[in-house]
Amino acid sequence: MANQGNKDGWRTKGNKQLRTKEIVRACQLSKDLDSQGVPHEIVIKCSMPFEMERAADAWAGFIRINNDLRYLGVRVTMI
After folding, report:
1. pLDDT score, position 37
2. pTM score
3. Helix and strand totals (H; E) in the chain
4. What CA–CA distance (Å, rounded) separates 55 from 44?
5. How many structural domains does the chain have?
6. Is 30 within the bounds of a domain?
């Protein structure tokens, strides 16, 4: 499970693969926060190219800009 870091946000223990469920959860959260007018930014960092493809397949609303995927306040990027 994830632990909250000092002031940096959430940190995970060890390397974990990005799953479709996390992508969908982040995009739905971003959509809900955006509808309420809450400023936010969710950054998901991938270490492997297949994780980027998994993210693109998981949520149809992503727009590819340079090497990032973006949807409202969600950004998926490679490390």
Report:
1. 95
2. 0.73
3. 2, 6
4. 10
5. 1
6. yes
Are 69 and 52 a contacting pair, CB within 8 Å?
A: yes
Q: Is residue 62 part of a domain?
A: yes
Backbone angles phi and psi of 20, in degrees to 5: -60, -35
User: Is there a domain that residue 5 lies in?
Assistant: no
E strand residue ranges, the chain:
2-4, 10-12, 42-46, 63-65, 68-71, 74-78
Q: Tell me whether residue 65 is in a domain.
A: yes
Identity of residue 48: M
What is the average pLDDT score of the chain?
83
48: containing domain: 18-78
The encoded tokens of residue 52 equal: 């980027």
What confidence tens digit (pLDDT) does each residue in 42-58 have?
A: 999 888 888 899 899 99
Question: Using CA atoms, how far apart are residues 53 and 20, in angstroms rounded to an integer?
Answer: 10
Backbone angles phi, psi at 57, to 5 degrees: -75, -30
